[in-house]
Each structure stands twice: as C-alpha cells, then as structure tokens.
UniProtKB/TrEMBL annotation:
One of its GO terms (molecular function) is FAD binding. It comes from Planifilum fimeticola. Keywords: Monooxygenase, Oxidoreductase. This is 2-polyprenyl-6-methoxyphenol hydroxylase-like FAD-dependent oxidoreductase. Transmembrane segments: none annotated.
Length: 398
C-alpha cells in the first residue's frame, strides 16, 4: 500500500511535532517554513505546561527541555503597592511546567525531526492551495515552486495564510487591547526565585519576572493599547523608545520592575496580542488547521505551545486510525474544539484583569483578588487544564 504524504505548512512548534507523530503513524511528511533559515533567537520565552510536557514526553524530548528550562510550580501575585495577593499553581497533582526560551523549544523539536530524517524546507511562503484531480492537494509557494501531497496541514500561526486561502469567509483574529513586551537581563543583587514566577498587577500595566540561579532574568509586561496595531508598525520603535515607553507605564510600580526594565540592554520584544476565539470550521477538503491557525489563544494562560502540541498528537492518532482524511479531520475537530475554545476564553478572561486602569476598579480588584486566589489555591483547582493527557496507544474510532 502506498504511503500517504502530508504537506505541513509552518515549521514552528506544531509543524515538526506533527511530522514526528505522523512518522510514527506510517505517514510521510514534509515541513515547509516561510522563514529563510532556522533562527536561534526567534521570540522570547514561553510556558510549557504539564499537559504540553506530556506530549513532549511521548516524543522522548521532555528531559532535555526540562534541563534547559526553568521549572516553576507557582505564580506569586503582587499588587501595584507591593502587597502579596496570593498565588496560583502552574500545574496540578504535583506536576508543574517549565519556562523556556522559545528558540530552545523549537530547536529541540526541529532537531529531533531532522535526526529522524524528516525534511524541512525553508523560504517556502505559501501563496495558494489547490485540490488536485486525484483527490490530493497542491501547495504553491511564492518562489514559484509547488508540492503535492494527500493532505495539507496548516500550522502557520495566528495570521495563517492557510486559513485565509481555504477559509476566506473566516473572521479575522481579534485584537485583545494589550501589547506584550519582554526581554532578558542579568542581576547580581536580585535573589533567585526558585520554582516561582512573580506577577505584579501594576497601576497601569502588568509585569512578570523570574530570576534564575545564574542571575539571568526573564521578564514580560502587558500594556493596555486600545488601538489595534501590528508587529510591523511596532517594529518602527527603537529599543530605547520601547524602554522609555515601558518605564513610563510602570512609573508607579514597586521594586524591582523599573530596575529590571532599565537594566535590559538587549532587544526588548513588543507585539500586539490577538486571539482566535472562534473559527467556524477547522477543515475543508484535504486541508486541516491546528494550533494557533485554528484557535490562537492569548499568552495569559501559558497554554499556546501546549495546545499546539496536543493538537499534533491528536490529529496524528486520528490519521493513523482513520485512513480517510476527511473522517480523520472530523474526528480530530470533534475531540479538540470544545477544550481549545475553553482555553481561549479562559486566557482572554485573565488578560481582562490585567487591563484595569480605573482607580475604583483597581481598588476593587486588589481587595477581592486574595479571596478568589484562596478559592483557587488548591494544587488541583485547574485539573481540567493541566491534567489533560493523550494516550498515543489508544485507538480512535469514527
């Protein structure tokens, strides 16, 4: 029997992970990435939650990432006046996630794909998709080349070209009213925060940071920014302009917020936060969407990478057990849609609490938050989020 071939659009996290699972399922895959070459410095850092680590464990690369990342079990919440409000667990039932630089995660998954002989082609910007006469699909790229396969998977992120081509009627990603900024610096005076990430609900903006045992600091800020904008527009701001903008927004916030921002000499990342709360359909013909292309979540719940990894293993199982792609795609969407959309809504609700600027609402938030944090202080309060597991060996039925 002829092996099926998958065209995977997007070489970030979901694409190479899916290719690895498809290989286990006996399906050939080629990954097509728009960037001209691999980048060791793509993005800042992210949370890989316990549910995401479970998927990486199935691929056999969780241990390497745990060693390179920063394991943390708790997020300590602090008010804009420096008062401790409470804490939230980054996991459940004794299992916690890690914070890791995005490029390290991508490098580990990509490296395993290459080691297993999976082809990754760079400089392949998708232009168009056509259904082929034989029932498959043809991907056409801006460089004039094309590729043919039995089905195509769009793993190309929140502003997915695959989604725009196949679902022209789909709603555009929704702007959340916040910018995400961040960077890395180093301190000889701040104490390490083992197992903890500190979160500060500032007077005008939100700030989070951790200090590794080496003194390296990972930090981020979420700024209210009412007018929808783009990465391209923000790229016109110099690093000094970004720093001054952040210092102004955090002018009244407690130590060490401004000190961390001021000491950051490297690049300060800045991008607008969008999400995709509802995509009417995730598949059409021989094409299916996964990860941010289908259900992009804002970063506030720390679940973006983990959701993409869950999608990858679930879709591969469906394609393994249901040879007809349309049937497999329908099963995948049925298994994933409810959970994915719940995570998008949950993450958006967290972000809404970061954007409070009215003095009365600020006071009310800081007064009530300790109560709600105690209510959800149990390590098992978010079992629905963190304890989700996908058993690769379990069979999928139509």
């Amino acid at each position: 029997m002829k092996k099926r071939k998958a065209l995977i659009i997007g070489g970030g996290i979901a694409g190479p992970a899916l290719a690895l699972f498809l290989k286990r399922a006996g399906i050939d895959a080629v990954v097509y990435e728009a960037k001209p070459s691999p980048s060791r410095y793509a993005g800042l850092f992210l949370n890989v939650a316990p549910n995401g680590l479970d998927v990486l464990r199935t691929l056999g690369i969780d241990q390497t990432l745990t060693e390179k990342g920063f394991p943390f079990a708790r997020m300590v919440m602090i008010s804009g006046r420096g008062k401790r409000l409470g804490e939230v667990y980054n996991g459940s039932r004794g299992r916690h996630g890690i914070i890791i630089k995005r490029w390290l995660l991508q490098e580990a998954i990509h490296g395993e794909a290459v080691r297993q002989g999976i082809r990754v082609e760079y400089g392949k910007k998708l232009e168009d998709i056509e259904w082929s006469a034989g029932g498959g699909v043809v991907a056409r790229f801006e460089d004039g080349t094309e590729a043919e396969g039995d089905f195509l998977v769009g793993c190309d992120g929140i502003h997915s070209r695959t989604r725009r081509v196949v679902f022209p009627e789909a709603p555009a990603p929704a702007y959340t009213g916040l910018l995400s900024c961040g960077g890395f610096t180093h301190s000889l005076t701040l104490s390490p925060t083992p197992g903890v990430q500190r979160m500060i609900f500032g007077k005008k903006a939100f700030f989070g940071y951790l200090v590794k045992p080496s003194g390296e600091i990972y930090w981020f800020s979420n700024l209210p920014y009412p007018e929808a904008t783009t990465r391209g527009a923000l790229s016109g701001l110099s690093n000094d302009e970004r720093r001054e903008m952040l210092l102004e927004w955090h002018a009244e916030d407690p130590h060490p917020v401004r000190e961390i921002i001021r000491s950051t000499e490297g690049e300060i990342g800045m991008y607008p936060i969008y999400d995709v709360p509802f995509q009417p359909a995730w598949h059409r013909g021989p094409v299916v969407l996964i990860g941010d292309a289908a259900h992009a979540t804002s970063p506030h719940a720390g679940q973006g990478a983990s959701m993409a990894l869950e999608d990858a293993i679930v879709l591969a199982r469906c394609l393994r057990d249901l040879p007809d792609p349309s049937e497999a795609f329908a099963a995948y969407e049925s298994l994933r849609r409810q959970r994915a959309e719940k995570v998008v809504r949950y993450s958006r609700s967290i972000g809404n609490n970061k954007a409070v600027s009215n003095p009365i609402l600020l006071w009310l938030r800081d007064m009530t938050m300790p109560f709600f944090l105690k209510l959800f202080a149990s390590p098992n309060a978010h079992d629905w989020l963190y304890s989700y597991r996908v058993d690769w060996e379990e069979r999928v039925r139509a």
